[in-house]
């Protein structure tokens, strides 16, 4: 119980220290983003998002999110306060909501989430610029243990630290950029720049500052969509983009593009819509729907996941078509699996859909829906006007008109899209062409996104399985590691780290970076980590370990390369030899607090040159020395040179307290660049209070070799002062028997030199015999009474507290541990 409470307190203390590192002069939105990044670090979360009440208070609107794209887990832009959801429950009750996979299975949110061990937490937020309005912090993780007590305590602290940005204060018109505007949502007063007035063909002297004046100059057909942006009731918190037309004194209307963001109300101020308006006419041809197709193609080109593709289609079609609902589904064999429903509330869809609300289409088999089956079979869009009688599964989706769009891709149908209207809708020729073009683009994008999702899942599984799950306990030191995936692309890559316990109280530290961020990089990372560990365990020095890994990567004939830094630390002597293969140098913090970016020769990256030299460099360590190894994601970005980044890392180490290594790691990662993977490995060298006693003996191949080995063992133990101690003498016969059997086994079954090593530490004697044969001794399972041999290893196993064999430089070492204490 004490250790559990200590663990909970340590995580919270680390979070408190990291929060203190956030300077008070940070921009409010930047501070909020930093707090969410700390939430990812301390909770092991995939995504974290903050929601606050909108202007009318009937919707919890997204303010900021961090981590993987929230669409991967189905997190919405807003949650109606009147509906039931984890975010609303936490906001309404003021108590945290913790949902594991079982609880999520019975929740409406589950249909938006991927399969697997997904845990969701919703915590009420009370701090911030809009104090008293409340809010919610949503956190999603795929950690197998979910949110344990230590994580829950830490999340409570982070939720209290959340503060969302207030809207910018209204300023003079001259303070706005040329095309910018700021609209007060309560009064309708708008402040605009000079360029924006020119786009509306207005003089500043003639402009009365009312938004109605600007709306009156728009083309009447575009006014409803524009009103949906400038009316707070129709717009949730977040970014919006819209194109519309304004009338000109002479000539055709001009196309303008509005980019706006509705920000929350500050204390004493109303919510504001801020943004810019620019000329979009250069992007448009004479046919207005061509621009819509171009925008859809551009959006689909950057859509990575199936959900991203679905949302891009909804954004491109629903508003221009004035549609009331859009549904997209993937075709999986003979079943349709829904990827997006807009609007997402069940009440917006027919009664049958509400009764069978799940991830699959109601009455899911395609053959049960003739309308959809015919459209998929023919591969052509089907238009059904108002009043058409359709099967029950489609009845009510579009009472005023229904468009059924099969989504073709690569000679097959990837899925289907339904667009419905409540009021009678006329389908013009241009609109039919728009639907057909959009369907073709969406089908191809769905196929690409499905492959992306499959690769993302594979790479995520590889990343979790190939990195160490925990670090080993070390003699005379403590190690700590952190890994942060990139928030771009597949979000996983080739950064890796490892801590390798080696014989004789040596420790191998490895950090590396494989080129790329995809499944190939993650796979190669696992292969290189395994190879370096295998070469290190064989007993090779650092330069040989890295040289072998280089030759292996060259022989794999891959186009990827890797960088690596390998450090072998002698925990008894306080020395460390390290090798760099195109990687960053270790950064050292000395016991007096001074830091040093080590200078040493560096070899080429792994996989570039078949024969490359990797020179070794020496570090001498005093108790309290801290070694930091990292990848370039922590110290290099588009804004920071690697030299400046290393200096900043050294400064962070100098200001840290090495007594709490976890806090040091978290503080160093608090401002990490999330455009690349980040791996960090720390080792604090404490020194060993007691050192093992060691002696070695080269066994000669003479008839009395075994007797000489026993005599050497007896004399060594007497020199160490343990042979005559009470309670030890009765174990001496056991020790000598084990020595006899191991030495005899090596002399009889191998050729070449045989070496006997004795090590005494903490009352345990380790007897090790090394030879030149890689063959592991065989322990027979059955022995007859007439057998003349084969019992040696059975005796060793019976007499030893532990025994085994390890490869050593082309041969092997067979070892046995015995307790000398009574």
UniProtKB/TrEMBL annotation:
Organism expressing this protein natively: Streptomyces lacrimifluminis
SMART domains xrefs: GAF, PP2C_SIG
Entry's Gene Ontology molecular function annotations: ATP binding; kinase activity; metal ion binding; protein serine/threonine phosphatase activity
Protein name according to UniProt: protein-serine/threonine phosphatase
Function, in words: Primarily acts as an independent SigF regulator that is sensitive to the osmosensory signal, mediating the cross talk of PknD with the SigF regulon. Possesses both phosphatase and kinase activities. The kinase domain functions as a classic anti-sigma factor-like kinase to phosphorylate the anti-anti-sigma factor domain at the canonical regulatory site, and the phosphatase domain antagonizes this activity.
Lineage, opening ranks: Bacteria, Bacillati, Actinomycetota, Actinomycetes, Kitasatosporales
Entry keyword annotation includes Amino-acid biosynthesis: no
Domain PAC stretches: 240-292
Top enzyme category: hydrolase
């Amino acid at each position: 119980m004490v250790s559990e409470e200590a663990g909970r307190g340590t995580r919270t203390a680390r979070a408190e220290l990291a929060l203190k590192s956030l300077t008070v002069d940070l921009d409010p939105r930047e501070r909020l983003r930093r707090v969410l990044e700390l939430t990812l670090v301390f909770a092991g979360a995939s995504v974290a998002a903050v929601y606050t009440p909108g202007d009318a208070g009937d919707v919890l609107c997204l303010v900021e999110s961090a981590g993987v794209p929230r669409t991967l887990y189905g997190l919405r832009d807003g949650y109606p306060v009147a509906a039931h959801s984890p975010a609303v429950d936490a906001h309404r009750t003021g108590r945290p909501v913790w949902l594991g996979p079982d609880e999520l299975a019975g929740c409406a949110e589950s249909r938006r989430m991927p399969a697997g061990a997904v845990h969701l937490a919703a915590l009420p937020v009370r701090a911030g610029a809009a104090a008293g309005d409340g809010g919610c912090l949503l956190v999603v993780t795929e950690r197998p243990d979910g949110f344990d007590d230590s994580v829950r305590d830490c999340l409570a602290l982070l939720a209290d630290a959340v503060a969302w940005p207030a809207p910018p204060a209204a300023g003079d018109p001259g303070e706005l950029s040329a095309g910018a505007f700021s609209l007060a949502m309560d009064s309708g007063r708008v402040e605009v720049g000079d360029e924006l007035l020119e786009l509306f063909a207005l003089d500043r002297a003639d402009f009365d500052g009312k938004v109605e004046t600007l709306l009156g100059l728009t083309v009447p057909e575009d006014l409803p969509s524009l009103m949906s942006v400038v009316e707070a009731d129709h717009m949730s918190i977040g970014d919006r983009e819209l194109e519309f037309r304004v009338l000109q004194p002479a000539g055709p209307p001009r196309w303008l593009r509005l980019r706006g963001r509705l920000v929350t109300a500050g204390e004493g101020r109303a919510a504001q819509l801020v943004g810019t308006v620019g000329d979009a006419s250069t992007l448009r041809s004479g046919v207005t729907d061509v621009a819509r197709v171009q925008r859809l193609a551009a959006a689909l080109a950057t859509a990575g996941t199936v959900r991203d593709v679905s949302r891009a289609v909804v954004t491109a079609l629903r508003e221009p078509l004035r549609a009331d609902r859009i549904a997209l589904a993937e075709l999986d064999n003979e079943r349709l699996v829904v990827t997006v429903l807009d609007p997402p509330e069940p009440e917006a869809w027919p009664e049958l859909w509400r009764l069978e609300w799940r991830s699959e289409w109601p009455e899911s088999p395609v053959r049960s829906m003739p309308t959809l089956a015919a459209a998929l079979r023919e591969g052509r869009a089907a238009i059904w006007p108002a009043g058409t009688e359709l099967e029950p599964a489609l009845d009510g989706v579009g009472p005023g008109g229904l468009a059924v769009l099969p989504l073709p891709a690569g000679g097959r149908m990837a899925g289907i899209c339904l667009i419905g209207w409540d009021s009678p809708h006329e389908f013009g020729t241009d609109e039919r062409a728009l639907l057909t073009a959009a369907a073709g683009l969406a089908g191809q994008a769905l196929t690409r996104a499905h492959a992306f999702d499959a690769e993302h899942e594979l790479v995520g599984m590889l990343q979790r399985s190939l990195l160490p799950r925990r670090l080993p306990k070390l003699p005379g030191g403590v190690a700590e590691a952190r890994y942060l995936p990139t928030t771009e692309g597949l979000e996983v890559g080739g950064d890796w780290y490892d801590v390798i316990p080696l014989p004789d109280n040596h420790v191998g530290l490895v950090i590396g970076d494989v080129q790329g961020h995809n499944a190939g990089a993650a796979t190669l990372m696992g292969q290189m980590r395994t190879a370096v560990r295998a070469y290190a365990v064989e007993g090779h020095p650092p330069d040989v370990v890295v040289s072998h890994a280089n030759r292996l990567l060259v022989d794999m004939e891959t186009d990827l390369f890797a960088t690596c830094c390998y450090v072998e630390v002698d925990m008894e002597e306080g020395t460390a030899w390290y090798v760099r293969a195109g990687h960053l140098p270790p950064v050292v913090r000395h016991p007096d607090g001074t830091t040093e970016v080590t200078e040493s020769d560096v070899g080429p990256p792994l996989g570039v040159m078949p024969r490359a030299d990797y020179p070794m460099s020496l570090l001498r360590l005093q108790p309290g020395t801290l070694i930091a190894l990292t990848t370039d994601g922590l110290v290099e970005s588009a804004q920071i040179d690697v030299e400046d980044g290393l200096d900043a890392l050294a400064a962070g180490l100098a200001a840290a307290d090495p007594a709490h290594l976890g806090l040091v790691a978290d503080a160093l990662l608090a401002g990490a660049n999330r455009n690349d993977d980040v791996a960090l490995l720390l080792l604090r060298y404490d020194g060993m209070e007691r050192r093992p006693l060691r002696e070695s003996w080269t066994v000669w191949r003479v008839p009395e070799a075994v007797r000489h080995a026993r005599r050497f063992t007896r004399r060594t133990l007497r020199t160490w002062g343990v042979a005559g101690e009470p309670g030890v003498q009765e174990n001496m016969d056991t020790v000598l028997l084990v020595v006899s059997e191991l030495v005899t086994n090596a002399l009889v079954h191998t050729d070449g030199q045989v070496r006997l090593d004795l090590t005494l530490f903490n009352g345990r004697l380790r007897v090790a015999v090394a030879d030149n044969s890689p063959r592991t001794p065989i322990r027979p399972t059955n022995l007859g009474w007439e057998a003349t041999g084969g019992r040696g290893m059975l005796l060793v196993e019976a007499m030893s507290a532990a025994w085994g064999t390890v490869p050593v430089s082309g041969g092997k070492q067979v070892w046995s541990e015995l307790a000398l204490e009574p």
